[in-house]
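Practice problem 4.
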């Protein structure tokens, strides 16, 4: 988690509830990048170094945790506005192929793994 990515990130989402990862993630951002801390709980964030972690218009955002009712409301809104996700199903046993296809850009949208191992 502490290694730098191969190139600066435009944005990142931190789900881990580990406050010490916040400065690490901020340093991974490019100029103007945004870090969203998306956990319901987060341990204390250490002091940030302005020049290393926030300079160049980097942003740190938190999100509000969502309830099941929030999820239901969101899905109803998506249905009402006819939002459709583009998905490509792969059997779970072919997960490596799904990842290769995704990496190679062989399709738009998301790969969905369907359990075929039962």
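Answer key:
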């Amino acid at each position: 988690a502490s290694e730098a990515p191969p190139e600066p990130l435009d944005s990142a989402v931190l789900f881990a509830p580990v406050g010490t990862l916040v400065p690490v993630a901020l340093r991974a951002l490019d100029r103007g990048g945004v870090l969203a801390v998306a956990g319901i709980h987060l341990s204390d964030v250490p002091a940030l170094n302005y020049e290393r972690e926030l300079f160049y218009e980097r942003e740190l955002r938190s999100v509000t945790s969502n309830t099941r009712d929030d999820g239901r409301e969101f899905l109803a809104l998506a249905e009402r506005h006819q939002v459709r996700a583009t998905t490509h199903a792969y059997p779970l046993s072919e997960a490596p192929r799904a990842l290769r296809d995704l990496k190679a850009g062989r399709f738009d949208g998301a790969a969905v793994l369907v359990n075929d191992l039962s």
